[in-house]
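re the bet — no i am not wrong, look at it urself. input seq straight from the record:
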Amino acid sequence: MAPTAKQSFERTRLQDVARSAGVSLATVDRVVNRRSGVREKTIRRVEEAMDQLGYRLDPMARRLARNQNFRFLFILPTGTNSFMMQLREQVERTAEWATSQRGFIDMIEVDVFDAEALAQTLDQLDEAYHGVATVALDHPRVRVAIDDLTQRGIPVITLVSDVPYSRRLHYVGVDNPAAGRTAASLMGRFLARQDGTIGLLVGSLSLRDHAERHFGFNQVLAHDYAHLKMLPVVEGRDDYELSKALVTEMVENNPDLIGLYSAGAGNRGIAQALTESGKAGQVVWIGHELTPHTRRFLFQGTMDAVINQDSGHEVRSAARLLLAHCWGEPVLEDQERIRIDIFIKDNIP
């Protein structure tokens, strides 16, 4: 019998389900908490009663009933990349929340530009962990390590940078080709019909997010703004000094440089190179991630636009996905979609 209007506004109890299915409360509890010892026919009868009564399980009650905890590891890059420092802060904040959900988070730092170092970290992961979230390098050695972990029953979430052909459980991050296309559209519009050269700087083309942003940027600029000449991409490894040196050389060798797209980090080095060369405010500079540094560069006029992803949303999403997997609970895809934000000096939060 379908629930009445009054019933639909009241919380259905397990006792109601047991009465409707014609079984004991203990049997319903076994079905709800997925314990063994119940015949398939009885399980179907209980599930039908739950559907008819509109019974919705309280996730926390179920977790308390199972009396189980889970431990997760977040692997983040070493170095002083401002966005990665924000990720570290968000992992620490999320760890406090996860504890209330019976999840416990550890964090380590690895040179993710070094495929062997990252792969060895994954290979040597303690069996006590129930899941991993990692900023990843798209490299065969890393793919094998992720696949081996999955084979061992430890799910892997790729964070910010993906390894799409691995057996990872989920990728948490923005659509990076779309982010690159967005940067190219902004660049073309900012420069209107000016002719000149555009510089491209990434951290590493081995990082999937940087490579995909570069691809998306080239795709739009070559098709919609063919009058702008693109320089060969250079790799700054998200390093302050190397990025500064590369941009300084770029400015010196290209007097007609009118635009710069940075798909990675190293923004303080870029800003210093533009300032010391007298090009700050003259070269249209578009980069990624809203940090205290890029916020300042936007206000100063050194930087023109920032393509951003919410670090807090990403870390919380990774934790939710790992917990949902371990508890066997559904995932709300819309909640876990990371959107692309665009900031200029007039809309900085």
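see?? The longest helix spans residues 82-100. told u. also The first strand starts at residue 70 and ends at 77. so pay up
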